[in-house]
Every structure is written in C-alpha cells, then in structure tokens.
Design a protein that fits this description.
The protein has helices at residues 2-21, 32-35, 49-82, 101-130, 253-264, 273-284, 287-290, 324-332, 350-360, and strands at residues 37-38, 139-146, 149-158, 161-169, 171-175, 187-193, 198-201, 209-211, 217-221, 227-233, 245-251, 314-315, 320-321. By secondary structure, the chain is an alpha+beta fold. The chain has 3 domains: 49-82 and 97-130, Helix Hairpins; 139-264, Immunoglobulin-like; 266-364, Immunoglobulin-like. Bound molecules: dinuclear copper ion (CUA).
Length: 364
C-alpha cells in the first residue's frame, strides 16, 4: 500500500514538474528550425525521401488489399444472406458438389499473381533505398544504441579511416536537404549497438532499421523541411525501451553550420564560485568514470557524452525537457525520472546537486 502511494506521489510530482516546465524559461536557447516541432510522428506524412518511397509502396499494397477485402467480404455477405435457411426448409442436405477445375485454377493462380506483383513492387523500393548512391557531400553519422539512449558520432573519412569530430547523444542535428538533385544533401547514418538489439525509427524521415550487436547497418535520410522530428526505439530492449526517444533536428545549412561550430568549440572554464565548486565535485565524484567531456580528464564511455550537454532539448533520452529544474532532479537521483536507468543515485547533497548543475550549464 505504501508502495502504491509512493508511486502515485511520484507520478504526481513528475507530472507537476513536467507541467511546470512549460513555464520555465531557464532552458537552452533553440534555433528557429528547432522551434518547429513535427509533433505527430506519422508515416502517412513523410517529409523525406526514403519515408516517401515507403509511403508510396504502402499505399499500393493497401489499395490492392482493400480491393481484395471488399470483394471477399462482399461475396461472403451475399452468400450468407442469399442462401440463409429458408422458412420452408425441408431439413434435407443440399446437393453436394465436388471439384471444379476452373474455379480451383482461378483461386490459385490469381492470388499467386497478386502476391508476385506485391513482392516485386516492394522489393523494387527496398532495392532503390538500400542501393542508393550517397553523394560526396552527404553528412556522415554513426549512431550506437545503448540501454536506453543513443550515442551519436559525426565523422569524416580521412584516408579511408573514420575521424570523429562531434559526439553527442539522443539528438541528431542535420542540414535540410532538397528535392532538387543539385542542391540535395542527404545524411548517411551507420547503426550499431553496444548491448542488445534496438531499432532506429523516425517515421516521417525513413523506415525502421535495427541496431544489432557486432554488426553495422545503415540508412539515409533526405529531409525536405526544417524542424524537430520525433522518433523512438522500435525494438523492445528492456525496462526503459519506451523512454529511448530520439530527435532529428533538421536545420537550415547556416543554422547547422552554427551548431557544428558551437559543438566543436572548446568549453569555457567555469567562472562563478558555484560553477568552480561544481566542476571540482564533478571531477571528485565518479561522474568521470561514465561520462566524457571533451578537453578534460573526464573520459568515461558508459554514459552519454556530456560535451555541450546544455545545448540539448531534452535529458535522459527525451524523458524530460532540458532545463535547470529537471537537470537537478536528474543529477540528484536519475531513478526518479527514469526507473531502472543505469545511472545510480549518487547520494549527493542538495547543495552539491546545485553546484554540479551550475557547472553542467557551462557546457554549451
Ligand atoms: Cu532500445 Cu528499445
């Protein structure tokens, strides 16, 4: 009973916090493109090339299946009504008919032909998507699935070797592409997993592809419009599978370049007394064992990279908006917002939480 009350209370607290967050202005500033949110992640409203191709083929399949459904149920309804038991039924069996070569041929050959056509239509689209040549200027990203967050690397090929220049988490910034082949700039994404099978799915941009341990899959996106697109892990991967959320932030080329420069810039040293205390605490406690901050001795790789963490829209892979209030709840005890997540309650005092959060806010 106590357990239940605690749970209800926890829900109320989290709910109230989320509601209050709408009024909190203390959050990282968003670019113009980021403010446009494609809230409904709907595969019937594709805004990028592979998603559009999948949408087209799914309409063909749906149409053919709908026609078959109408014909079959129509005939069934006709037979059920027309040949229902008459009032003056004599109780005798009707004449029994066996075998009709023509009818049997028809109901074998027609479905086979329909299935072949659907299979060809589908495999042609799959082939077109998987064999698409990426242009030279395509943005290259590698995404690694973890329980329960996304690790994101931006890399360039130098002498055939990948060289990472930005590492971030859960939010993928890409430049907007174009339907004009000359102006297009798609993004090519490699998909890997650090633990179990996950699945990368942003319905309005592309199909769903699994992230499988010891294997590299890939997909590409070619978004026509700017804005924040919502996605999620689409393969059950443990307790917090439902909170393994993902955002793709499609920006104008100028905004994207600005974001890239911001991410690559060195972090400023902590300024205020509180930021300095927070910095000290961060390095004194075990934060450094799991998290990485570029240009510092913090080199852990188990948790999300915290470089420029204060430029992200959300924390905990989309479990809460990024603002001071939620960051404090998270640092104090991540289990409040995300039960079962691999970051433990570090038993910090309230003033230590405030100091560490003040330091994390300098990472922008
Ligand atoms: Cu990762 Cu479900």
């Amino acid at each position: 009973m106590h357990c239940l009350m605690a749970l209800v209370l926890a829900f109320l607290i989290v709910g109230a916090n989320l509601a209050a967050a709408a009024e909190v202005s203390d959050a990282p500033a968003l670019s113009e493109s980021e403010k446009v949110q494609h809230r409904v992640a709907d595969m019937f409203q594709p805004l990028s090339k592979p998603a559009e191709m999948i949408h087209d083929v799914s309409l063909v399949v749906l149409f053919v299946c709908a026609v078959i459904f109408v014909i079959v149920t129509g005939m069934l309804a006709y037979v059920v009504i027309k040949f229902r038991k008459p009032g003056d039924d004599d109780g005798q069996e009707p004449p029994q008919i066996y075998g009709s070569r023509n009818i049997e041929l028809a109901w074998t050959v027609i479905p086979i032909l329909i299935t072949i056509v659907l299979a060809f239509v589908t495999t042609r689209t799959i082939g077109e998507i998987q064999n698409a040549e990426m242009p030279e200027n395509a943005l290259k990203i590698r995404v690694v699935g973890h329980q329960w967050w996304w690790e994101v690397h931006y890399y360039e090929e130098v002498d055939g070797q990948p060289v990472t220049y930005i590492v971030t988490a859960n939010e993928i910034h890409v430049p907007v592409s174009s339907k004009d082949p000359d102006k297009r700039r798609p993004t090519h994404i490699l998909l890997q997993s650090a633990d179990v099978v996950h699945s990368f799915w942003v319905p309005q941009l592309a199909g769903k592809i699994d992230l499988v341990p010891n294997r590299t899959n890939d997909l590409w996106i070619d978004p026509y419009v700017t804005g924040t697109f919502f996605g999620n892990c689409a393969e059950y991967c443990g307790t917090q599978h439902a909170n393994m959320l993902l955002r793709v932030i499609v920006q104008t080329p100028e905004e994207f370049e600005e974001w890239k420069q911001e991410q690559m810039a060195p972090n400023l040293p902590p300024q205020t007394a509180q930021e300095i205390r927070g910095h000290q605490l961060y390095f004194d406690y075990s934060c450094v064992n799991c998290h990485k901050i570029e240009g510092s001795p913090s080199k852990g790789i188990f948790g999300p990279d915290l470089n420029k963490v204060w430029t992200r829209q959300t924390l905990g892979a989309g479990v809460a908006p990024m603002d001071e209030k939620h960051l404090k709840i998270w640092v104090k005890d991540p289990q409040v917002l995300k039960v079962g997540c691999l970051m433990p309650d570090m038993q910090l005092l309230d003033n230590e939480v405030d100091d560490i959060v003040a330091y994390l806010k300098t990472l922008k």
